[in-house]
Amino acid sequence: MGARGEAFLGVDIGGTKVAAGLVNDNGELLYKTRNPMNCSRGADEAVNAVREAIDRTIRENPEAEVRAIGLSSPGSVDPRTGTVVMATNLPCWKNFGLAEIIAKQYGLPTELHNDANAAGLAEAVWGNGVGYDSVFYATVGTGIGTAILFDRQVYLGRTGSAGEGGHMSINFDHRGPRCACGKPGCIEYLAAGPGIATRARRRIESASGNEGAKLIELAGGDVSKITGETVEAAWKAGDRLATEVFEETADYIAIWLGNIVDFLEPDVIVMGGGVGNMLSPWYPRIREYLRSWSVNPRAGEIPFVQAKYGPDSGIVGAAALVVHPGQYIMHAPTH
Ligand SMILES: [Zn+2]
């Protein structure tokens, strides 16, 4: 039993996997599958991984009428030309015209966008951003991606690179290692999963007594094996050091969002991603602390909500790009 009727095929491309699925025009995920992704064997092999995921989706849903294909990719993407410009996790595609290849092969309208923009669009059109004119979307996971949406349209900027809010620095004097992008003090470097793990390891190194004992135990006694998930597990087991690391993460996010509110004053802030979900017990703290990092006297009124779409946000977001062709995208002028 596969999906039936009109459907939109969403493809979520990552550095290690390709996820694909069918979504109807109500934003319901009807089917999904995934495939390994490996850029180390070259650009064509990586395209084949995308094709395999699309082929399987079509093959296993013979009664679905696929209308269009939406593709989402990490990194810098030019949606006007359907090009992956540069993605750290997909080094085999540089200035690579992926959308055209897929459109030609399947004879279907195809759009390609940055993954956070696509996931943010899904929230604005079908998720917890519905009913708001302006939406600020943030996905916090192994990195931090953001999207700015006005009236259910993705704000792209001059060349399609707007909305890289994860690389806003909140501490230019940061003395530790720099963010992978080269800047010091990016919110991504401080508050995404690897940053949480790094801060936990540093705290353990300077801790006295048996502080963080639970965290070390959960990492199998090896501090270097601590990940964001280990810190979460230790927090849930009542470890104080792990709890403090999460409190600090929540505070970094609040400082960052205070800037966002001053700059954009969105109608709603929607937070997704694995770490974004882990942080949900701290949402009230973030909302409260955000007020002292914003000059906006009404900052505290802005709803701060969890995303509707969890791990499938990439598939649903990619499908959202093509459900009403052109309608949801604020096209940047061409040069
Ligand atoms: Zn950065």
UniProtKB/TrEMBL annotation:
<dbReference type="InterPro" id="IPR043129">
    <property type="entry name" value="ATPase_NBD"/>
</dbReference>
<comment type="similarity">
    <text>Belongs to the ROK (NagC/XylR) family.</text>
</comment>
<keyword id="KW-0808">Transferase</keyword>
<protein>
    <submittedName>
        <fullName>Glucokinase</fullName>
        <ecNumber>2.7.1.2</ecNumber>
    </submittedName>
</protein>
<dbReference type="Pfam" id="PF00480">
    <property type="entry name" value="ROK"/>
</dbReference>
<dbReference type="InterPro" id="IPR000600">
    <property type="entry name" value="ROK"/>
</dbReference>
<dbReference type="InterPro" id="IPR049874">
    <property type="entry name" value="ROK_cs"/>
</dbReference>
<dbReference type="GO" id="GO:0004340">
    <property type="term" value="F:glucokinase activity"/>
</dbReference>
